[in-house]
Amino acid sequence: MSLDEKVKAMGIEIEDFSPSPTLAPATRIGSTVYVSGHVSTGYVGKLGRDLDVEEGKKAARVCALDLLKAAYTVTGSVDKLRLRKLLGCVNSMPEFTDQHLVINGASELFWELYDGEKHARSALGFASLPNGFAVEIEAMFEIVD
């Protein structure tokens, strides 16, 4: 099964994407696709106060879906994309230390899609994120032929 077929089998509407009118959702330089930070639409608030880890993981998955869709706009195929790096930003209380578990919500989607293939990743806590979103994640994909 191709990755394009697998995406459909996973129920992901890859072409259902509404990018910001003022920013490029992704850009290609050589064989690398840099995907802008995407936020957790529908999930606002601080981890450790307003949301728990499970809600945070769902928020991170929302980001991951948009990251994949944004990268797809550059290549027109998921088959050509391999995730190489995620940077996860978690809007969290100072005492919250489970940012890595929250960002697992994004990583798990990519592990499922790429059959457990690993990627580099950072998961950081932030005092605030734009518009109070719970999570923002950016990514780098490699284009492979």
Protein architecture, described:
The model has no long low-confidence stretch (mean pLDDT 96). The protein is globular and about 45 Å long. The longest helix has 23 residues, at 53-75. It has three helices and five strands. It has a five-stranded mixed β-sheet with strand order 1-2-5-3-4, covered by helices on one side. Helix 2 (53-75) crosses helix 3. The two termini are 16 Å apart. By secondary structure, it is of the alpha+beta class. The chain is 31% helix and 27% strand. Strand 3 (81-91), helix 3 and strand 4 form a beta-alpha-beta unit. The protein has helices spanning 3-9, 53-75, 99-113; strands spanning 26-29, 32-39, 81-91, 120-126, 135-143. The protein has a single domain, classed as 60s Ribosomal Protein L30, Chain: A (2-Layer Sandwich).
Q: What structural class results from the helix and strand content? A: alpha+beta
Please report the distance between the alpha carbons of the first and last residues.
16 Å
- How many distinct folded domains? 1
So what's the overall shape?
globular
For the biggest β-sheet, the strand order reads 1-2-5-3-4
- Beta-strand residue percentage: 25-35%
Unreliable sequence segments: none
- Indicate the mean pLDDT: 96
Could you give a short description of this structure?
With 145 residues, this protein is an alpha+beta fold. The protein has one domain: 60s Ribosomal Protein L30, Chain: A (2-Layer Sandwich), CATH 3.30.1330.
Features:
single chain, 145 residues, alpha+beta, 60s Ribosomal Protein L30, Chain: A, five-stranded mixed β-sheet, 3 helices, globular
